[in-house]
Design a protein that fits this description.
single chain; about 280 residues; alpha/beta; TIM Barrel; eight-stranded parallel beta sheet; two-stranded antiparallel ribbon; 11 helices; 10 strands
């Protein structure tokens, strides 16, 4: 598997394992154990996923060397302030059973996320987090943030898949040397992505599935991917993307699939924003 070098020199795997929507503790623990034994080293969770303890239990049981793992979790909206971020970090670290995090992300650009970032900058400088970053920061938000803060985010985790490609966002991230990371790389199954004729035709040339083509397409754009599955066979298939390269013609064909907006979330909808703020109330 390839790795990318973050803007602070830290090495990060280009493919990881996500645990969004795996709240059942036993299922989550087994999935992470299977992922680690399959070869995944980047594990992505969040306080909002309610499964940090299960992820931590799996890490402990796996027997994997801590230095070989790259563990990410995220700060939720309700903890977006200087003081609460410090407390939330300690809570996440305890649930994960770890002494440090490899990557800590602000989950949404909501609440006092500037105050939260100052706390994260301090934790980073203390060596308790190897890299800090953000999620769901659209270009105008990311530009303002990078022009304001002391430590430029190492990562911006956003929705990136063939139907929402965000080329302008990727261009801006490159300008600030922020590594893009894709959540929902399979578009949560929308548009029949796993049987899409364009993707399946491309895959047939390489003996690969549409899902493998989608993951390969993103990593060739320099995007870190974190596909999720609770099935070991699919975990193995998702990892099997490092022995082929899509042609320029393939990349151009996929570029035409972009519809230019998300059909999963709408961060510009006030009701959606209010719902995120009230999630744990």
């Amino acid at each position: 598997m390839d790795c990318t070098i973050l803007n602070n020199g830290v090495k990060m795997p280009m493919e990881g394992f996500g645990v969004f929507q795996v709240p059942d503790p036993k299922q989550c623990e087994q999935a992470v154990l299977d992922a680690i034994s399959t070869g995944y080293r980047l594990i992505d969770t969040a306080a909002a996923y309610m499964n940090e303890e299960a992820v931590g239990a799996a890490i402990k049981k796996s027997g994997a060397c801590r230095e070989d793992l790259f563990i990410t979790t995220k700060l939720w909206v309700s903890d977006a302030s200087y003081d609460k971020a410090k407390q939330a970090f300690e809570s996440s670290l305890k649930k994960l059973g770890l002494e440090y995090l490899d990557l800590y992300l602000i989950h949404q650009p909501m609440g006092d996320y500037y105050g939260a970032w100052r706390a994260m900058e301090e934790l980073y400088k203390e060596g308790r987090i190897r890299a800090i970053g953000v999620c769901n920061f659209y270009p105008h938000v990311l530009a303002d943030f990078c022009e304001t803060v002391e430590v430029i985010p190492a990562v911006n985790q956003v929705e990136l898949h063939p139907f929402f490609q965000q080329e302008n966002a990727l261009k801006l991230m490159k300008e600030y040397e922020v590594t893009p990371e894709a959540w929902g790389p399979f578009a949560e199954g929308k548009h029949g992505i796993f049987t899409d004729p364009v993707l399946t035709e491309i895959g047939a040339k390489y003996g690969k599935s549409a899902a493998q083509v989608v993951l390969r397409w993103n990593v060739q754009r320099g995007v870190v991917v974190i596909p999720k599955s609770v099935h070991r066979e699919r975990m193995e298939q998702n990892m099997d993307i490092w022995n082929f390269t899509l042609s320029d013609e393939d990349m151009a064909a996929i570029a035409k699939m972009d519809i230019g907006h998300s059909e999963i979330v709408d961060h510009f909808d006030p009701n959606f924003v209010r719902a995120l703020h009230g999630r744990f109330k």
